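stuck on this chain:
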Amino acid sequence: MDAARFAQPQILHQPVYQPGRPIAQVAREFGLDPATVDKLASNENPLGPSPKAIAAAAAALPAMNLYPDGSCWDLSAKLAERLGVGRDQLVFGNGSNEVLELAAHVFLGPGTEAVMGVHGFVVYKLATLLMGAKAVEVPMPGFRHDLAAVRAAVNPRTRIVYLACPNNPTGTVDTEAELVAFARSLPEDVLFVLDQAYAEYQERAPDLRPLIAEGRAVLCARTFSKIYGLAGLRVGYGCTRPDIAALLQRARAPFNISSVAQAAAVAALDDAEFVRRSRETNFAGLRQLAAGFRELGLEFVPSEANFILVKVPDGAAVFQALQRRGTIVRPFGNLPEYVRITVGTAAQNERCLANLRAFLAGRS
């Protein structure tokens, strides 16, 4: 019997997440030396992982025969102290993706809705649809959230509003004042999920902890995958009200954060020098790419993240052409004239711009 006949109906129409292509796969396909391929597709830290995290992960390896601490005790203690919140306000996920999905598991189901920007992180839509709920996508003029339109889309069926700051894939931001006013305008039975995966790249990220302290239904999600360079270990967390956190814990799988990942994340929090260097490298890279795009006559969306969205003649064609030259970027089906480029090292950025230049010259 075809398994689809007894699967849940929403699974039959569920889109599949398409990650950035791996270096090894591109190297095999195009006959390239993997050492010469730059992956600028998945917003990873081009400096690698935090050195302190590497040392802590290595020290944790001999105990890998034991299950990890399911409560993430050491990590939650350090984060709670760092953030000035209670340990019972924190929920850990296998990357912040899982935190976003936990919210959907707890609050969404058939007959409910989640509101999000049309150019928001695709996981919001995927998690919503997986739960049999409706994804309401709001237009984003100028690639920014129209918070008034988002608020107007909220109705009695709405259970979650998903927004990101900086937004992925556009790199645009909303101010703290705008987000606070928006959160205060929401009904008390709507969870506002603010995805702050790239917040550490901002000079001053919006802080919604005072809203949580007021009792607002707010969940702020962050990750160790980006500025800390731990994407391969998958550690993320959410900060929210204790009662909301307790509900999310009910949906969380046991032992979802490995012992190695927990140790690395604890150490990464103390690596202020690495964070500073990563931020400075990113600021310089954004300037370098922006200057290169201007020279090439390409429009782009100013970004406060570690990536930049640039308008090209044909996103799919650029994606393919740059792969052949050893640069992996990210195309988007709903943005066919754009590609998203992760900020790399100065050398990686320059190679990317050279490959773009060659592509454009070949079309002229």
Notes: Residues 319 and 344 are 17 Å apart (CA to CA).
